[in-house]
What does this fold into?
Amino acid sequence: MSSAGPAVDFEDEIGGFRPALTTADSPDVLLRAVGVEKSFPTGEGALEVLRGVDFTLAAGERVAVLGQSGVGKSTFLHILAALDFPTRGEVSFRGENLFAKTSDELARFRNECLGVVFQFHHLLPEFNALENVMMPGRIRGLPLPELRERAEAVLREVGLGERLTHRVGKLSGGERQRVALARALVLEPPLLLADEPTGNLDPRTGARIEELLVRANETHGTALVVVTHNEGLAARIGKRLTLIEGRF
It folds into this structure.
């Protein structure tokens, strides 16, 4: 994990941002954050959560992000996923500044390059496990036979080959989280972001999710960033960064 260069400012213009150009990265750098700051307005002024975070992730690398509750770990992960904007700074993926993209381009980036797993599964309850996992491919417009084959294969990989047609309400908490993981992996993204993926699970089920996350990295070469309080999971991931007072 190497430090990046100086922070790059975003200029606030009528509620928007004017991103600076991204410096070209070396080919093995998948994701880079430079000088990322994030603050939220309060009645007593701005609350600074991130204070100039630099972060570099190589293709196929895996990293655990730790820190106390409320320190900004989830905020940082949401910015990496381009689900939230930084107040200042820049995030680039394969050398391209994410925040210079249009909303349609960002949606395409999330669909084609990114898988996200949250603490809560966010599955669609009206659909079964297979249909939920197929959803990213439906958005991409993949042919249904190919998509069904992909979804069935990844559900079998996470141990749910016998639960394909079960609706969300008929699945246990651990099974729902495995469906969410399968959905994140079905299009084989180069990057997987996970926010407390074992936070709502019992130790035995959490250990299974840990194993699946590590296996995705080792088997498919998926780069992995995991936000967690779980020391066991952090140990499995290997590399650790601790967020303290808005910085690593």
Remarks:
- Residues 1-23 have pLDDT under 50 and may be disordered.
- The radius of gyration is 18 Å.
- The CA atoms of residues 61 and 223 lie 5 Å apart.
